[in-house]
Design a protein that fits this description.
Structural class: mainly alpha
Shape: globular
Number of helices: 6
Radius of gyration: 14 Å
Distance between the termini: 21 Å
Number of strands: 0
């Protein structure tokens, strides 16, 4: 089991990484795409209250949208410490946007 301090550090690292990637992208456009393709604003907010990882929204919905979004170039990804783009990167970026730009969760500190 992960202790609370390690969990907090890992959550902060994840936040910093995907906030950096999200800022390379068109956040308002991705926010609209999430709301029209994945779940309503109310559903995202309720889901985030139940599970901060948003695993209660079917992964297939995230996967489908992640496969369709424009990807930052490798050069841009390198500026935030990412070396490549994958489907899981896309899902993490979308969930990050859903958590912090739709459900208005507080960033980790």
């Amino acid at each position: 089991m992960i202790d609370a301090e390690l969990r907090k550090r890992l959550w902060l690292e994840h936040y910093v990484k995907f906030e950096g990637v999200a800022r390379l992208m068109d956040i308002p456009s991705l926010r609209r795409s999430i709301l029209s393709c994945v779940a309503s604003e109310e559903r995202v907010r309720a889901a985030a209250q139940e599970d901060e990882h948003l695993n209660n929204i079917p992964l297939k919905k995230w996967d489908v949208l992640a496969g369709c979004i424009p990807r930052p170039s490798k050069e841009k990804l390198n500026t935030v410490g990412e070396s490549f783009w994958s489907l899981s990167t896309g899902v993490c970026v979308l969930k990050h946007i859903a958590r912090y730009y739709i459900a208005n969760m507080e960033p980790p500190r």
